[in-house]
Queue: 4 jobs
Job 1
Amino acid sequence: QVQLVESGGGLVQVGGSLRLSCAASERTLSSYAMGWFRQAPGKEREFVAAISWTGVSTRYADSVKGRFTISRHNAKNTVYLQMNSLKPEDTAVYYCARHRTVWSPASIVQGDYDYWGQGTQVTVSS
């Protein structure tokens, strides 16, 4: 059973930055694409960013393009989400997820991911 643990969330002012981390319990993380999703109160969970298993290809939601950067460090079995120029509308619980298929490309589809972390809260105050 793969376990994903997010960290790095917190309270930040508008325009500030945070870096989220997602650590996996198994070393097989390096063979899978990874994604970040978020869910704001009263809203559906939505795609934020994804990275292919090689780390070469990335995809972003339009709302975060140019502000967020997804990266991975396979030797540390960790995926990151660097969030800059944060806005109040970025407030949400952020989840990382592992793609269900080995050697997978970056995907924006939630159904393509089978293991999810417990989430970390990000709150942006104005």
Job 2
Amino acid sequence: QVQLVEAGGGLVQAGGSLRLSCAASGGTFSRYAMGWVRQAPGKERECVAAISRGGGSTYFADSVKGRFTISRDNAKNTVYLQMNSVKPEDTAVYYCTARFAWQTAHVMKDPGSYDHWGQGTQVTVSS
């Protein structure tokens, strides 16, 4: 069973950048499609980005498209979320997630489709 540990959250001003990382252990990282799911207070969980096993396919929510990028380094068992031009509405707890196989965007955007979750890291964007 894969374990996921996020890092890199914090406080950032609107318009700034932040990079989240997620280190995986206890499983064969390259077998998992990875995602980043966020949850803001009082709001539903939202998958903002996902990446396939080899990194050739990605998904981005409309709310972050053009501002966030996702990447992975299978040699380091790590997935990244680069957040640029952040907005106050990006404030949330960000969770690293994993599922065994890449599916269509309809599946990948569903937070409930992920089997493994990290503990989350808080991102706060000040205006």
Job 3
Amino acid sequence: QLQLVESGGGLVQPGGSLRLSCTASGFSLDYYAIGWFRQAPGKEREGVSWISVSGRNRNYDDSVKGRFTISRDNAKNTVYLQMNNLKPEDTAVYYCAANRDDPEEAGLGYFNYDVWGQGAQVTVSS
């Protein structure tokens, strides 16, 4: 069974940092682009960042550029999202997702991804 599990969420004050992890079980991430998405209450799911299989291609939504960094460690079957200088508007459930069809060009469209994790809550509040 293909499964993604997010971890590392929690409550943090504005300006703080968190690192989310996305770990695969039942399959190898070596062949999958990975995207991070988030959904706040009452809002649509939006793409935050993605990284290609090789790691050479990665991109970020404008709202997180310069604050978030995506990386991958294929040996650990894990992708990370380092989130710095967090803002209250970053509060959301964060999901990771996997795409095998476009390993180097997956992009931030959620419809491109077909394996999803259950999500991790990130709350930024003082």
Job 4
Amino acid sequence: QVQLVESGGGLVQAGGSLRLSCAASGRTLNNYAMGWFRQAPGKERLFVATISRSGSNSYYADSVKGRFTISRDNAKNTVYLQMDTLKPEDTAVYYCAADLTMFVFAYSKDSKEYDYWGQGTQVTVSS
């Protein structure tokens, strides 16, 4: 069992930055690809970014490419999402998720592939 706890959300003006953290306990994250998803009010949960177990491969949704950066520190059992040049349309609850995989370089943008989810952290971008 893996417990994931997100932090770092908050209120920021458009053009600002936030860094989200996702701390894991219960198991080492070395065996998990990790992902970030977000859900705006009244909308479905959408993929944001994913990173492989090794940290060498990552993939982003077109809407955040060039503005967001996913990274991980396996020694700290933590995954990060650096969000720059934030826009009002980035407002959502952000969730991190863990995908148990045997493939070191694999990642997934499919929420159904993920085994564990955090409780989410609210990000609000004002115009």
